[in-house]
Amino acid sequence: MSTLTRKEQLPLVTARSGSRRASAFLARRSLAAHRRAWAAVFAAAGAAAALLGAFALVLGSLLSARPPVERYAGADAVVAADQKVSYTAKPWGSEPRTVSAYLPERVRLDRALVAKAAAVDGVAAAVADDSVPVALGDGTAATGRSWESAALTPYRLTGGRAPGGDDEVVLDAASAPAGTGPGGTVTLRAGGPAREYTVSGLAESRGGTPAPAVFFTEARLTALAGHPRTVDAIGVVAERGVSPEALRGALRAALPDATDQHRAVRVLTGAERGEGERVDAPAGRNDLLAMLASVAGTVVLVALLVISSTIAQAVHQRSGELALLRAVGASPRQLRSAVGREAGRVAATAAVLGGIGSVPLGFLMRSLLGTEALPLPVPLWLPFAAGAAGALVVALAARPVAMLAARRVTRLRPSAALGEAGGAEPSDPGRFRTVAGLLLALAGVSSAGLATAQGGQAAALAASGSATSLVIAVALLGPRIAEVAVRVLGAPMRRSAGVSGFLAARSGAAHTRRLGAALTPVVLVTAFVCVQLAATSTLERAADRQAAAALRADLMVTGPAGGLPDGVAGAVRGTPGVAAATGVLRSAVLLAHREAGEPVLDRLPVLGVTAGQLASTVDPGVTSGDLADLTGTGTVALGADRADGLDAGVGDRVELRLGDGTKVAPRVVAVYERSLGVGEFLFPREALADHVSAARDQAVLVRTDGTGPEATATALRDALAPYGVVRVGPATDDAVRSAPATSGQDDALVVIGVGVIGGFALLAVVSTLTLITVGRRRELRLLRLVGAGRGQLTRMLVLETALVAFAGLAIGTLVAAVPLTAFSVALAGSAPYMVPARYGALVLAVVVAAAAGTLLPARTGR
Q: Residues 25, 334: contact at Cβ < 8 Å?
């Protein structure tokens, strides 16, 4: 084909320019004529942009978060062991993949590395830094450190001198008891009963703002720490003029690449030094990042679904107008372009305002997730970038959605379009939409079935995929579902509500597409909130029941957050009235395995117990083996579900990594069924004691001998008085739970997931129903003209609202029940459960939102 000449191209350019001008003219006129209809789209787009921008801000803040540098503020570098482990496996039909996870317990270094670090050129001092939990006489928690390590913060003496013997200490002036000074005495509890120490001096921090500290001599601190051959970390102070980069390079060249346990040796400088202080912070950040990213993915899906549904409904209400324009000569391209411009302008304006609103919303969400161990920074550029990202996603999504929604009408021939302009609303959603909806529904049910055969994360992912598929299927099959709902509920309405019921039923039957669009956001909010709340409630309820069934103790002894001092369990066993006592040491292990062929590193909380008297205090429901054999460092008891997953039984060995990364392969001596309550692994206490940051029991479970719990509790308080703030009370389920029911961050995620996203979904309910009601004003006026009274129309709208709310709640609950049942059966072995008050609050919120979206806009239409 020959190239067109310039003269031949000119008419084409002129035609295109005229077409664009016509589209722009139609868009401007339509925006002016349909302001109320586009208001609902404006609200949905603005809220979506705010929500997306807020999540982008929180995720960006979390990605840049690091533990604060406090304890090592005066150190130029910190030498510590790597806290991360990896696992490589070959998925089915793919290349090998590597996954990583952080260790929950501190990995220590060989003490010989202190001398090697001190001998490096450019190093002024290298100090071994260990710590032990300490309690002052009034119960105030503090950290025990060596006086040599005080230079790492740094601390400076404000009075007195450094400690010179095992019975002398230097106190942090900010936390020292009132009236205590050099030469005085102080009662401390560190690793045993209370003991008096002489205060040789007071010191104050000149660097960071660390936790209250008590400084011992190096020899005393090493004895209290209980690991003389290893150190927690090494703090390094550089000579004057040595840069951090040069110091890092020199230390890396002089120190070995790995520890004796094959853990990498890291040299931390700058902001990285905080990771040497709080080894659990990076792990917490990764866990929170994974959970928040999962919620953010749901947010994107919900936002796009709501925007698409709202814009599609707004365009569909104008199908008659578009058909008429097509009949009088407007080209399909002009109409699609006009609709796209219209939606794009509305969405762009709303997105800008939503992007601005995302900043305060993001800061609110950030305040719920930040902790002292991991504060969430906000770089200056982040709010602008996050708001712009949320606004951009919404603005870019609006135009193609609108053009796609107008595609059916704009493709009609002018003669057919003229008939369409005056015809009734089509109720058939189309073959493609119906087939796609049915396939997604089938995929959702299949995913739920797959979840019942899986465990752990695989079951959760399959259930989540099932819920997503079913919600989208409902959106696609909305008119079909609405038709069924009208058939089921229409007859009762006609019989019980007279004329108003007849009108409501006939209106629903004649406009199933409109009714389907109204049902979609109600189903969305119902299914989402039910899945979020019921999944947590189901697991917590099952775990509580199993923990309660496993508890045999009458009393328990607990202490401060750092754990009970050494010797408490022995003192409890020697108290009159005590028949059995079991110390409970908490830790975690990492299990490397495959789920659906993919490599997975699961971090699982575990309990370390003393088997001698365990049968009298804890009953995990042993199905095979004997817990009396749970002794030494090479045995383990295993939950039945995990045993099935690992294909392991009594006498087999399971490969695990303990909390500090040590690889072990203990022999299974028992299998039990209450693994949700007491955890999936039970270890002998001695197997964990050398692999935890602090080998301190979190509780001691006590079974009395029949003399009465009250009398035994009194005797225990007297016997444990030398150990300070130790509490004796009735035994509770939490004592045998392998992990707390919920954490502060878990609660924050529930607030964000249910409160923020659920609130957005409810706004979508109001916006969609408002848009539908605004489009019905001509219909309502016509009913008034033919004789319907205001009261009859009001009752009709109330009945329609009830139909939408009831059908949406029922379908949404059913959509949630399918994946929830699969999830509950797979992980809890029970039916799903949701707190009735929470479901009642959801029902109330949906009814109020439906009424606000239907009844309030209709007042001026009657």
A: no
Tokens encoding 423: 């015809």
For residue 343, is pLDDT > 60?
yes
How far is it, in rounded angstroms, from Cα 722 to Cα 547?
31
> H or E stretch including 590?
strand 578-595
Three-state SS for 725?
coil
* Range from 256-270, 662-676, 791-805 that averages highest in pLDDT: 662-676
Q: Which two tokens stand for residue 815?
A: 């959509």
Q: Which amino acid is at 251?
A: L
Residues 683-703 have a mean pLDDT of 90
Tokens read off for 411: 């493709």
Distance CA 242, CA 269 (A): 13
Helix, strand, coil share of the chain (percent; to 5): 55, 20, 25
Helix 35-63 to helix 332-369 angle (10° resolution) is: 40
Can you give the pLDDT at residue 484? 79
Angle value at C-alpha 502, between 501 and 504, nearest 5 degrees: 65
The residue with greater pLDDT, 505 or 243, is: 243
CA dist 544 and 736 (Å) reads 10
DSSP structure string for 10-73: HHHHHHHHHHHHHHHHHHHHHHHHTHHHHHHHHHHHHHHHHHHHHHHHHHHHHHT------TTT
Residues in the chain: 862
Could you please report the per-residue DSSP string of 246-305?
Answer: HHHHHHHHHS-SB-TTSPBEEEE-GGGHHHHH-TTHHHHHHHHHHHHHHHHHHHHHHHHH
User: What pLDDT, in 10s, does the model give residues 599-637?
Assistant: 888 889 999 998 888 888 999 999 999 998 999 889 999
Per-domain residue ranges for the chain? 1-67+287-423, 102-283, 478-548+741-862, 552-735
CA dist 606 → 40, 356, 388, 600 (Å): 51, 45, 44, 18
Read off the pLDDT of each residue in 480-503 and give the average, rounded to a whole number.
75
Q: φ, ψ for residue 236 (rounded to 5)?
A: -120, 130
Q: What element of type H or E holds 846?
A: helix 836-858
- Asked if pLDDT for residue 8 goes beyond 60, the answer is no
Tell me which range, 261-265, 652-656, 751-755, 772-776, is most confidently predicted by mean pLDDT.
652-656
d(CA 554, CA 614): 13
